[in-house]
Amino acid sequence: MQQTATIDPISAAQGEFERMMARNIKGLNYFTSPAPVVGATPREVLIERGPMRLNHYRPMTDEVYRVPILLVMATTNRGFIFDMVPGQSLVEFLLRAGFDVFMLEWEAPRSHERSLTLESYVLDFLPAAVARVREETGEPDVSMVGYCFGGVLSLLYAALHPAQGLANLVTFTTPIDFSRMDLFSAWSDPRFFDVDRLVDTFGNVPGDMLYASFDMLRPAARTAANMRLYDNLWDDEYVKSFRMFERWNTDTLPLAGEYFRQTTKKLMWDNSLYKGTMTVGGRAIDLGGITVPFLHLAAEHDHIVPREASAPLLGMIGSPDKQEIMLKGGHVSLVAGGNAIKRMWPALANWLAERSI
Amino acid sequence: MTSNPSDPAAFFRDMLGHWEKAVNNFGGDALKSEEFVRGMSAATAATANMQANTHQVMERVLAAANLPSRADFDDLARRVAGIEATLARIEAKLGSGGPDPAKPRPSRSRKPPSKAS
């Protein structure tokens, strides 16, 4: 249908002038007011050990599904992406949908924790979290939900602990073929990138360095985002959302040195998870041995884990009950923000509900 | 053209979107070129060298001033972590007491809408 609206240049200019005034006034507020409080859903910290934090969120319904959910955050970022503010929190959404929710998130490893390895995460932190969830709920099994590299850790855990209390496995935007992560693959080219020197010198890999790498994936994004922020300064909701995501983006965590060295060599250089040659603690990883119900949620416009990097995952999982859902959005907007609320959260809750009784 | 004709700034918003896409595409190609990667790796190596040199100098300065170094603090932190781990093992042997009985315990019998009748 053809648009027939008449343009009134005077009122349009007046509207733009009003917005400009609002931008100036609210721009001042932006610099003088604190950022929104994030991660405020009531919770109890069950384990606080090294970089590991296991949270249990207070149930919001009188009756919950039998199987609890354990969210596993990526090791590079804070867990509050799952729990932004009331109304924009995946944790709150799952609680209201009747789930018992736990989250395994990470703090920055301290200097002496540079020796933490992939084994520390897969054979110590994750099993300890699962055991604590089982103890807390009295249930024999849990649904594990991993985001990005948290998904990789969840896959490794599931492959190595096939009979230890996993009811369902869900991964979001999880890479499997690391050779298809073009930019990261180029930047970690073993001909030029000396990971040993980096780790031996710095100990832990600085968060700033990782943040710069993520930022360089889309070189114009920061400038464009700031220009859009200025354009939308009059809009309180836009500004609030911008500040939440900006805070999460810039709060990139350092990585334990040995863990970084291992993941670079095993995953980026050897692509061993995809090739089926991956080992953790000397034990071979066979994703075909994962037989619990499996769901992978991928984003159409993921600039961090491109589609090609996660596409082979579903075929490698051994479960007869497996599914992949491709949703609109990017790496972050898949799990938080307006699109996630409409698309991903209900899809996740529905899939889990059927398998959590 | 997707500009809203009633919004004078819409044209610039569209242009911003096009500019961002073009720069990201061009930048993505440039940033994965061998020349860039070689330069980036050289810069990282230079930063690492600088850090290592600074570290050595600071170690000497702290030793001369008879002050504990970063390594000394790391050793202490490791020993504290060891004590924490021992405590955790003792606590585990004593038994955590299980879940707190005072906490609210919702019943775990919920059914999905499709199965609830």
From TrEMBL, chain A:
<dbReference type="InterPro" id="IPR051321">
    <property type="entry name" value="PHA/PHB_synthase"/>
</dbReference>
<keyword id="KW-0378">Hydrolase</keyword>
<protein>
    <submittedName>
        <fullName>Alpha/beta fold hydrolase</fullName>
    </submittedName>
</protein>
<dbReference type="Pfam" id="PF00561">
    <property type="entry name" value="Abhydrolase_1"/>
</dbReference>
<feature type="domain" description="AB hydrolase-1">
    <location>
        <begin position="90"/>
        <end position="334"/>
    </location>
</feature>
<dbReference type="InterPro" id="IPR000073">
    <property type="entry name" value="AB_hydrolase_1"/>
</dbReference>
<dbReference type="GO" id="GO:0016787">
    <property type="term" value="F:hydrolase activity"/>
</dbReference>
<dbReference type="InterPro" id="IPR029058">
    <property type="entry name" value="AB_hydrolase_fold"/>
</dbReference>
